[in-house]
Amino acid sequence: MSSSSTLLGSLVLPDRVVAGTLHIAEGKIVKIEEGYVQGKENVLDFRGKYILPGLIEVHGHFREPGLEHKEDIPHGTRAGLAGGYTTVFDMPNVRPPTTTVERVKEQLKRYTGRSYCDFAINMGTAVEDISELERIEKRLITGVKIFTAGHATTPTTIPHLSDIARIFEILGKRGIMALLHAENQELVNYFTHKYRDELQRNDPAVWSEARNLSVVLTSALEMIALARQFGVKLYLLHLSTTEEFAAVEFGRKIGVDVHGEIAAYQLAFHTQDYERYGNLINVAPALRTPEEQKKLWQLLREGKIDAVISEHTPHLLAEKQKASVWEIASGMPGIQETLPVMVTNWIKHFGQATLEEGLVRIAQVCSQNIAAIFDFSQKGGLVAGKDADLVVIDPAQSWTVRKADLFTKNRWSAYEGMELVGRPQATFLRGALTYQHGEIVGDPQGKWIVRA
């Protein structure tokens, strides 16, 4: 494609949908006009379809280094483009984990020239590496990911509040954001012992009973208290209950700059689905009841959820098919399916007549808000001056999810066989067509993004 082009279609702007014309030059959106402008060169006609800003994935579990048998950067980021994601943040729980300055720099090299999406790095931390947080250049990372509780694939859990306080003190002084997997390890241990050892249960559904509301809410409130103490900007990862989002609101009332996200699978699956899907849908934090899920959808509609992510977490199918829930690898792939899952389920919950309202909200929580929270002002919205990261969808066209369509290395999906609408038809990264009609277009174009 030339350095300038024009797209026609239904444009999902930050506050409304308009039938309009999007002008792109040198990788940027230069002008947005209502109505369809005629007589231009390099016109791409998407009339009858919707154009959204490219999505941003906070949880890029692309498994490099050390776990490439599950996923790698080229496969994972191709799946991202096929799902309408144009920017990904790398997650640090790899082998060895990204908990040192040197490993952050190595991770940037690993992505360069191999990523199909633009990228940034979430640094991790471990008790033995806390001093590295004093040394890291702020511009190299989005923030620091902390696991307060672990599961089978978490090598760097920090269960003691005293250690987290040490970390927060450094982050507060240096103005670095904390990204928290907030579950209470002491309560995880207590409930695991109760259900596994005393009650002798190992069925899929017991996971949600053991990783219950008290496990997540106590930890979320503790992190808010520490953020208040040390002046840390706080991003709470994959919240799963309305009470945690109430905690976010409470945090803001007491002066904490705190934000909360939810994973799309929490809005697609609930505890009654264990009967059908078993441990394929084992995730941490755990799935919640249908009633709780309905309330979460209402919060989303009301604008009380800041971000929605795929939390693409590929594991081998064999790791999901063990007999006991206590031996299962938590998490599932889904970066390619998330956008159609969100569109389909929005319509299911609120009706076809609310589709455009839903698309505006999805663009906000999957792109615009994330870019704002992480200070990447060049990303996240159909706005003049921003990068021309775009995804085109046709909600009238249905897609039955098949393994053959998936770009993830692992080639399985809990969504397999589902009929979804809103599958991306085309994805543009900084104005360049990178995906269309089920095919990746061209070589990896992803660049490291820095705060503008």
Question: How does this model look, in words?
Answer:
This protein has 452 residues and is an alpha/beta fold. The chain has 14 helices and 19 strands. The two termini are 26 Å apart. α4 (161-174) packs across α7 and α13 (338-350) crosses α14 (355-373). The strands form four sheets. It has an eight-stranded mixed β-sheet with strand order 3-2-1-4-14-17-18-19. A six-stranded parallel β-sheet has the order 8-9-10-11-12-13.
Can you describe this structure in just a few lines?
With 452 residues, the protein is α/β, with parallel strands linked by helices. The chain has 14 helices and 19 strands.
Features:
single chain; 452 residues; alpha/beta; eight-stranded mixed sheet; six-stranded parallel sheet; 14 helices
Main sheet overview? 8 strands, mixed
Structure classification? alpha/beta
**How many strand units?**
19
Proportion of residues in helical segments: 25-40%
Low-confidence residue ranges? none
Biggest sheet strand line-up: 3-2-1-4-14-17-18-19
> In what range is the share of β-strand residues?
15-25%
Count of runs of 4 or more consecutive helical residues:
14
Write the layout of secondary structure elements.
Blueprint: E1 4-12, E2 17-25, E3 28-34, E4 43-53, E5 55-60, H1 73-82, E6 85-90, H2 101-111, E7 118-121, E8 123-124, H3 132-135, E9 144-147, H4 161-174, E10 178-181, H5 185-198, H6 206-210, H7 213-230, E11 234-236, H8 242-253, E12 258-263, H9 264-268, H10 274-277, H11 290-301, E13 307-309, H12 317-320, H13 338-350, H14 355-373, E14 390-393, E15 398-400, E16 419-421, E17 424-429, E18 432-436, E19 439-440
Parallel strand pairs: 1-4, 5-6, 6-7, 8-9, 9-10, 10-11, 11-12, 12-13
Antiparallel strand pairs: 1-2, 2-3, 4-14, 14-17, 15-16, 17-18, 18-19
